[in-house]
Specification:
About 90% of the residues lie in helices and about 0% in strands. The protein is mainly alpha-helical. The chain is elongated.
Length: about 130
């Protein structure tokens, strides 16, 4: 898998979606979702390799796996929300896209609070 494959799939899907949108808009949306899922599955292996590297680095740095897990959840929420928001925009549902992004921001904030508290506690321990 490389960027040429992803680009070829995306361009082919875009051309087919433009043709389908004139005759059957719901099928164009389904095609858009399908192409997005195919591209996501193609890059999923690369994401797994990055997660493995981050785990190794966190073990070397003696960082708790709780923080790494939380960070990975935040990254996952951001990617999934962006993916779904783009699908909503492709379906001309910009309001739904905005709501998905808002929900993702709230979820990220909820997950980030324990990390912020831990950082603040560490800073307070440094102050005599």
């Amino acid at each position: 898998m490389d960027i040429l494959q992803v680009s070829g799939i995306a361009l082919t899907g875009a051309v087919l979606a433009v043709v389908l949108k004139q005759k059957s808009p719901p099928m164009a949306v389904l095609l858009s979702i399908t192409v997005g899922i195919i591209i996501f599955l193609l890059v999923l292996g690369k994401i797994g390799a990055i997660v493995d590297i981050l785990r190794q680095l966190s073990e070397r740095a003696d960082i708790s796996s709780i923080y790494l897990g939380t960070l990975l959840k935040i990254i996952g929420i951001a990617y999934i929300a962006d993916f779904i928001a783009q699908i909503c925009r492709d379906a001309d549902q910009g309001a739904f896209a905005t709501k998905v992004e808002l929900a993702a921001k709230v979820m990220v904030l909820v997950l980030a609070v324990p990390i912020m508290v831990a950082v603040l506690q560490a800073l307070l321990r440094l102050i005599p």
